[in-house]
Amino acid sequence: MFLHSSQWKQFQKNIGRKTFDLGEGVFVVKLQLPWFGKSYLYSNFVEVFDKSEVIKEIANRENTIFLKVEPMLYNEELVSRLWQSGWRKSGKGLQPQRTTVVNLQMPEKSLLVGMRQKTRYNIRLAQKRGVEVKKSYDKLRDFEKFWQLLQHTAERDKFYTHTKNYYAELLNVEGTGLYFASKGQIPVASAIVMFYENTATYLHGASSYEHRSLMAPYLLHWDIMQDAQKQGEKFYDFWGIDEEKWPGVTRFKRGFGGKEVQYIGSYDLPTQKIWYMVYRLKNIYR
């Protein structure tokens, strides 16, 4: 899991966040809340659940109000143990609770057969309409094209992006790839993908509404999957599905087939109970 890597930890530092090592490669990150100068600690390591005392020391020192952990696994026994130990299920997570993962360890023909018929059709349609996909070999030069596409996408779909610097630093992380689907010289869709160990993970994407009839995102992801295969990756993780929050995006991702994976979600351990209650109430009534 790329979230556990030393590269990801360095990325957190590069965007101005403090990290704290707990030994054996395990770390937590300090994240700011948008009010009263408050902050919390965050991690994806399941091992953090057994390091509560060390975490509390860091929390006291850093004056953070809770620890949020989102392990990328599902274990009912663990969920029961967490509740008994004072952890509380959070309604606000940073990482997806469900995703869909395509097994790349099969011939391209089999991958296509595993897709929905409309997805295969749209891939062929994009090819017929002259869409071409290329990987950027100069991410610094091409970053502005991605950022402009992302701004248009965020405005159209009404979601908030990270800062511009966040994406620029992300592309500096070892293993990230930047891809564009273009019609002639015009970029119409783009994606940032993380290659780590045996998995290529789709992190961020953008597309042009004006050129939506080209069906470029379908061909974009199909070409990325093929490129990942050539690099020896075994899986392609679409990184997040949710029918209620992102119905259109979820339909799109499911169209490529694959297996759906469920995680236990987000759990909080309050270290300043009154401020944690304020945090919960703000999330409920905002």
Poorly predicted sequence stretches spanning 5 or more consecutive residues = none
What CATH architecture of the largest domain would you give? 3-Layer(aba) Sandwich
- How many helix segments? 10
Q: What percentage of the residues does DSSP assign to strands (E)? A: 25-35%
Number of strands: 13
Q: Kindly, what is the distance between the CA atoms of the first and last residues, rounded to a whole number of angstroms?
A: 32 Å
Structural class: alpha+beta
Mean pLDDT: 94
CATH superfamily of the largest domain: Gcn5-related N-acetyltransferase (GNAT)
CATH class of the largest domain: Alpha Beta
Tell me, briefly, the overall form: globular
What letter string, H or E per element, gives the SSE order?
A: HEEEHEHEEHHEHHEEEHEHEEH
Q: Can you walk through the features of this model?
A:
This protein is an alpha+beta fold and 286 residues long. It is 38% helix and 26% strand. The chain has two domains: 2-95 and 264-285, Gcn5-related N-acetyltransferase (GNAT) (Aminopeptidase), CATH 3.40.630; 98-262, Gcn5-related N-acetyltransferase (GNAT) (Aminopeptidase), CATH 3.40.630. The chain is built from ten helices and 13 strands. The strands form two sheets. The protein has a seven-stranded mixed β-sheet with strand order 7-8-9-10-11-6-12. Strands 1-2-3-4-13-5 form a six-stranded mixed β-sheet, with helices on both faces. The model has no long low-confidence stretch (mean pLDDT 94). Pfam families: FemAB. One of its GO terms (molecular function) is aminoacyltransferase activity. Belongs to the FemABX family.
